[in-house]
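Running this now, will post back.
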Amino acid sequence: MHKTVLLSCLVLAVLGLTSGCTGGQIDTRTEENQPKIPPPTCIGVLPTQAIVTNNSVNASILSAGTATIDSILRETLGSNRKYRFVEASQAAQLQAPGAMASLDASRAVAQSVGCSALLTTELSRFVERDGGPYGVRQPAAITVSYKLYDVQTGMSFCHGRFDEQQEALMENLFSIGKAGKRGMTWLTAEELAREGLQSRLAECQYLDK
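Update: finished.
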Protein backbone atom coordinates (compact mmCIF):
# COMPACT_ATOMS: atom_id res chain seq x y z
CA MET A 1 0.00 0.00 0.00
CA HIS A 2 2.75 2.42 0.99
CA LYS A 3 4.70 1.57 -2.18
CA THR A 4 1.64 2.31 -4.32
CA VAL A 5 1.10 5.71 -2.70
CA LEU A 6 4.78 6.57 -3.02
CA LEU A 7 4.81 5.60 -6.69
CA SER A 8 1.74 7.74 -7.37
CA CYS A 9 3.35 10.74 -5.71
CA LEU A 10 6.50 10.33 -7.74
CA VAL A 11 4.51 10.17 -10.99
CA LEU A 12 2.58 13.33 -10.09
CA ALA A 13 5.79 15.11 -9.15
CA VAL A 14 7.43 14.23 -12.46
CA LEU A 15 4.37 15.40 -14.37
CA GLY A 16 4.36 18.63 -12.42
CA LEU A 17 8.03 19.27 -13.15
CA THR A 18 7.56 18.51 -16.82
CA SER A 19 4.66 20.91 -17.08
CA GLY A 20 6.64 23.64 -15.36
CA CYS A 21 9.61 23.25 -17.69
CA THR A 22 7.64 23.60 -20.91
CA GLY A 23 5.37 26.43 -19.90
CA GLY A 24 7.83 29.23 -20.62
CA GLN A 25 8.92 28.27 -24.12
CA ILE A 26 7.55 28.89 -27.60
CA ASP A 27 4.98 26.27 -28.54
CA THR A 28 6.21 24.05 -31.37
CA ARG A 29 2.88 22.34 -32.07
CA THR A 30 1.31 22.79 -35.48
CA GLU A 31 -1.48 25.30 -35.92
CA GLU A 32 -4.03 22.52 -36.54
CA ASN A 33 -3.53 21.13 -33.02
CA GLN A 34 -3.81 24.45 -31.20
CA PRO A 35 -6.83 26.33 -29.89
CA LYS A 36 -7.84 29.35 -31.95
CA ILE A 37 -6.27 32.67 -30.95
CA PRO A 38 -7.16 36.13 -32.32
CA PRO A 39 -5.15 37.12 -35.40
CA PRO A 40 -2.42 39.69 -34.70
CA THR A 41 -3.10 43.33 -35.51
CA CYS A 42 0.54 44.30 -35.01
CA ILE A 43 3.60 42.16 -35.80
CA GLY A 44 7.15 42.82 -34.69
CA VAL A 45 9.66 41.71 -37.35
CA LEU A 46 12.95 40.50 -35.90
CA PRO A 47 16.27 40.78 -37.74
CA THR A 48 17.12 37.60 -39.64
CA GLN A 49 19.31 35.23 -37.67
CA ALA A 50 22.19 33.31 -39.27
CA ILE A 51 22.16 29.62 -38.34
CA VAL A 52 25.52 27.89 -38.81
CA THR A 53 24.76 24.15 -38.98
CA ASN A 54 28.19 22.76 -39.92
CA ASN A 55 31.81 23.77 -40.42
CA SER A 56 31.46 23.99 -44.20
CA VAL A 57 29.15 26.98 -43.88
CA ASN A 58 30.97 30.30 -44.00
CA ALA A 59 29.58 32.36 -41.13
CA SER A 60 30.60 35.67 -42.73
CA ILE A 61 28.73 34.80 -45.94
CA LEU A 62 25.62 33.86 -43.94
CA SER A 63 25.89 37.10 -41.99
CA ALA A 64 25.96 39.08 -45.23
CA GLY A 65 23.02 37.01 -46.45
CA THR A 66 20.91 38.00 -43.44
CA ALA A 67 21.15 41.64 -44.56
CA THR A 68 19.73 40.57 -47.93
CA ILE A 69 16.82 38.73 -46.28
CA ASP A 70 16.11 41.73 -44.04
CA SER A 71 16.02 43.96 -47.10
CA ILE A 72 13.54 41.61 -48.80
CA LEU A 73 11.34 41.61 -45.69
CA ARG A 74 11.25 45.39 -45.63
CA GLU A 75 10.53 45.47 -49.35
CA THR A 76 7.70 42.94 -48.93
CA LEU A 77 6.12 44.08 -45.66
CA GLY A 78 7.43 47.58 -44.97
CA SER A 79 4.62 49.54 -46.61
CA ASN A 80 2.06 48.11 -44.16
CA ARG A 81 1.86 49.82 -40.76
CA LYS A 82 0.91 46.48 -39.24
CA TYR A 83 4.60 45.53 -39.30
CA ARG A 84 7.15 47.11 -36.99
CA PHE A 85 10.79 46.24 -37.51
CA VAL A 86 12.78 45.48 -34.38
CA GLU A 87 16.31 46.87 -34.19
CA ALA A 88 19.20 44.44 -33.69
CA SER A 89 20.01 45.91 -30.28
CA GLN A 90 16.45 45.28 -29.11
CA ALA A 91 16.42 41.72 -30.44
CA ALA A 92 19.80 40.73 -28.98
CA GLN A 93 18.27 39.30 -25.80
CA LEU A 94 15.98 37.07 -27.85
CA GLN A 95 18.35 35.93 -30.59
CA ALA A 96 21.40 34.77 -28.67
CA PRO A 97 23.11 32.08 -30.82
CA GLY A 98 22.10 28.57 -29.79
CA ALA A 99 19.70 29.75 -27.10
CA MET A 100 16.05 28.82 -26.82
CA ALA A 101 13.94 31.97 -26.77
CA SER A 102 11.80 32.32 -23.67
CA LEU A 103 8.34 33.83 -23.75
CA ASP A 104 9.39 36.46 -21.23
CA ALA A 105 12.10 37.67 -23.61
CA SER A 106 9.68 37.51 -26.54
CA ARG A 107 7.13 39.62 -24.68
CA ALA A 108 9.74 42.20 -23.76
CA VAL A 109 10.89 42.55 -27.37
CA ALA A 110 7.33 42.66 -28.72
CA GLN A 111 6.37 45.23 -26.09
CA SER A 112 9.24 47.45 -27.22
CA VAL A 113 7.47 47.91 -30.56
CA GLY A 114 3.92 47.70 -29.20
CA CYS A 115 2.98 44.35 -30.76
CA SER A 116 1.53 41.03 -29.60
CA ALA A 117 3.21 38.79 -32.20
CA LEU A 118 6.72 38.29 -33.57
CA LEU A 119 7.96 37.18 -36.97
CA THR A 120 11.31 35.39 -36.84
CA THR A 121 13.43 34.46 -39.86
CA GLU A 122 16.44 32.14 -39.96
CA LEU A 123 18.98 31.74 -42.76
CA SER A 124 21.11 28.57 -42.85
CA ARG A 125 22.29 28.57 -46.50
CA PHE A 126 23.18 31.46 -48.79
CA VAL A 127 25.29 30.50 -51.81
CA GLU A 128 25.87 33.11 -54.50
CA ARG A 129 25.70 32.30 -58.19
CA ASP A 130 29.15 31.83 -59.73
CA GLY A 131 28.70 32.92 -63.32
CA GLY A 132 26.16 34.91 -65.30
CA PRO A 133 22.43 34.65 -66.07
CA TYR A 134 23.01 32.24 -68.99
CA GLY A 135 25.82 30.06 -67.67
CA VAL A 136 27.16 29.19 -64.22
CA ARG A 137 29.90 27.21 -62.59
CA GLN A 138 27.85 27.16 -59.39
CA PRO A 139 24.14 27.95 -59.06
CA ALA A 140 22.64 30.02 -56.27
CA ALA A 141 21.26 28.16 -53.25
CA ILE A 142 19.08 29.37 -50.37
CA THR A 143 17.67 27.85 -47.18
CA VAL A 144 15.48 30.24 -45.22
CA SER A 145 12.63 29.67 -42.78
CA TYR A 146 10.19 31.84 -40.85
CA LYS A 147 7.79 31.57 -37.93
CA LEU A 148 5.00 33.88 -36.76
CA TYR A 149 3.91 33.37 -33.18
CA ASP A 150 1.87 34.95 -30.39
CA VAL A 151 4.09 36.17 -27.53
CA GLN A 152 1.45 35.70 -24.82
CA THR A 153 0.76 32.02 -25.46
CA GLY A 154 3.79 31.01 -27.53
CA MET A 155 1.47 29.45 -30.09
CA SER A 156 2.41 29.54 -33.77
CA PHE A 157 0.14 31.26 -36.28
CA CYS A 158 2.10 29.85 -39.22
CA HIS A 159 5.56 28.89 -40.37
CA GLY A 160 7.33 28.03 -43.62
CA ARG A 161 10.62 27.02 -45.17
CA PHE A 162 12.23 27.58 -48.57
CA ASP A 163 15.15 25.36 -49.51
CA GLU A 164 16.44 25.31 -53.09
CA GLN A 165 19.58 25.10 -55.18
CA GLN A 166 18.69 26.15 -58.70
CA GLU A 167 19.01 23.34 -61.24
CA ALA A 168 19.50 23.25 -64.98
CA LEU A 169 16.37 22.31 -66.90
CA MET A 170 17.98 19.13 -68.24
CA GLU A 171 18.81 18.05 -64.68
CA ASN A 172 15.19 18.29 -63.61
CA LEU A 173 12.54 18.32 -66.33
CA PHE A 174 9.83 18.74 -63.69
CA SER A 175 11.10 22.31 -63.12
CA ILE A 176 10.18 23.47 -66.63
CA GLY A 177 7.29 25.62 -65.36
CA LYS A 178 9.50 27.30 -62.77
CA ALA A 179 12.28 27.79 -65.31
CA GLY A 180 9.83 29.45 -67.70
CA LYS A 181 8.73 31.93 -65.04
CA ARG A 182 12.38 32.75 -64.40
CA GLY A 183 13.03 33.49 -68.05
CA MET A 184 15.24 30.41 -68.44
CA THR A 185 18.06 32.23 -66.62
CA TRP A 186 20.23 31.53 -63.60
CA LEU A 187 19.18 33.67 -60.64
CA THR A 188 21.41 35.44 -58.17
CA ALA A 189 21.14 34.43 -54.50
CA GLU A 190 19.13 37.59 -53.81
CA GLU A 191 16.71 36.88 -56.65
CA LEU A 192 16.25 33.27 -55.55
CA ALA A 193 15.75 34.36 -51.93
CA ARG A 194 13.19 37.01 -52.91
CA GLU A 195 11.18 34.56 -55.00
CA GLY A 196 11.26 31.81 -52.38
CA LEU A 197 10.66 33.91 -49.27
CA GLN A 198 7.84 35.94 -50.78
CA SER A 199 6.10 32.77 -51.97
CA ARG A 200 6.30 31.23 -48.49
CA LEU A 201 5.10 34.37 -46.71
CA ALA A 202 2.15 34.55 -49.11
CA GLU A 203 1.01 31.13 -47.87
CA CYS A 204 0.32 32.55 -44.39
CA GLN A 205 -3.10 34.16 -44.12
CA TYR A 206 -1.95 36.33 -41.22
CA LEU A 207 0.83 37.99 -43.23
CA ASP A 208 -1.28 40.23 -45.45
CA LYS A 209 0.71 42.81 -47.40
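The radius of gyration is 21 Å. More later if anyone needs it.
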